[in-house]
Amino acid sequence: MEHFDIVQWADFVRGLPESADRTAMEEHLSSGCQACGGAVRQLRKLVAVADAEARYKVPNYAVDYAKSIYPLQQPAKVHIIAHIHTRLIYDSFREPLPAGIRGQGRIIRHTCYEAGDHSLELRQEIERGCSRVTLVGQITNQKEPRRQMPDVPVTLVAGKETVARAVSNEFGEFVMAYEPRAPLRLYVQVERAARFLSRP
Question: Which end of the chain is more exposed for a tag (fewer CB within 10 A), N or C?
């Protein structure tokens, strides 16, 4: 008994083969071939799911929300301490939003990073229809939470261009605003501030 391959059966369930081929395939199924019959049943289920997906209309609020969060791209790279890997430990965009929040005019993204003894919390905000993102951050020393973190230089870079600069206050807080672009890199120069603070 000659079997048909999976590509031929995929065309079969979508009604694509010529009539002569289709007749031969129908006869093959009628002969009771278990392997080909099982393949056709699975492919028909797959086609049914694909058809249902194609008919699904994405709600307008979801499309609008997707467009509005695009500018809140997290930085492609975040550097806190040289030669120490900075890792992302929290991103609010990975959690579903309650329905009421989706319709608000302001979109907010929270992220948190760690490198060595330091953590960096970022809050990005953008108003719907606005082109500028506000970035608020705080750098802290997890080993010494009460230690002040003033005068830490913070630089946001796109390619070779400096997009925004800020310097932290005594609580390690800083704020900057920028036009969205990619890829962004954020440099928080903790060592530079530490060297400055340790000078006599």
Answer: C
